[in-house]
Amino acid sequence: MRNRTSIIAGNWKMNLALGEAIELVKGIHFGLSFPGEVEVIVAPTFLCLQQVAEQLKDSYIVVAAQNLHFEDQGVFTGECSGKFIKEAGADYVIIGHSERRQYFFETDEIINKKIKAAFRNRLFPIVCIGETLDEREAGKVEVVIERQVKESFSGLSSPEISALIIAYEPVWAIGTGKTASPQQVEEVHQLIRSLLSSKFGEQAATYTRILYGGSVKPENSRELLSLPNVDGALVGGASLNVSDFIEIIKNAK
Questions:
Q1: Would you say residue 60 lies in a domain?
Q2: Is residue 1 part of a domain?
Q3: pTM greater than 0.90
Q4: What does the radius of gyration of the chain's CA atoms come to, in whole angstroms?
Q5: What letter does residue 240 receive in the DSSP assignment?
């Protein structure tokens, strides 16, 4: 029986100015007075982070940043550190999203540094992993996932693994409207849990929450969220719509 509390996290990406961001979180908060046994997270842009966190301080909704730098301060123009993110009111941070890997050339080594920076600044990492369409069609899913787990989590302790959140996001399903089949999702989530067990112990594998991300919508979320090894969802486009996001939260109960 699964004893891991479900998480529904909304990654807003580069969307919503401040007024729109505040309106959205108000809509979620007042549209769903109690989420049940579900943790709800929203990830606004850096410029909205502090104001959204302030708006939500008495709400069940908590805040994540979409990225961080692996140093706490220094000559890194345009970057934002875990120290600043924590001071702005966030408790979580998304690390290693496929868009960061694709457009900003982030490697597993960089992601590993960012995870350690998050823990150093008392932030819970939401670490994204997943294969491209070419890798899946070449039969390399297991090789890719194993490499990402091994290199991204290098040097972490079993308690740290239990504390972080993994989001399996097949790159070919992000923003494309395509969704991995329930069988494909469950197979990879089982693989991730098996890898965690062999590298960090059974307890870490049991307690680590693994989310699915990739064109999650109200209409497919119920089936995906009912899978034994799926502990929630990292939602993209549907998290920008109050009614859609609330419906996904309800389907996670």
A1: yes
A2: no
A3: yes
A4: 17
A5: G
* Burial label, 241 (beta-carbon count in 10 A; 0-12, 13-18, 19+): middle
The answer to whether 153 touches 161, Cβ cutoff 8 Å, is yes
What does the pLDDT look like over 15-70, one tens digit per residue?
A: 999 999 999 999 999 999 999 999 999 999 999 999 999 999 999 999 999 999 99
Choice among 29, 39, 69, 97 that is catalytic: 97
Selection from 19, 56, 63, 30 nearest residue 246 by Cα: 30
Catalytic-residue membership of 29 = no
Question: Is residue 97 flagged as an active site residue?
Answer: yes
- The residue from 69, 106, 169, 189 that is catalytic is 169
Residue 30 forms part of a structural domain: yes
Where do we find the tokens 């990406």? 13
Number of domains in the chain: 1
Residue 91 located in a structural domain? yes
- Say which CATH number the domain at 167 has: 3.20.20.70
Distance CA 80, CA 58 (A): 26
| CA pseudo-torsion sign 201, 202, 208, 210 | positive
Which residue range is the domain that position 71 belongs to?
Answer: 6-251
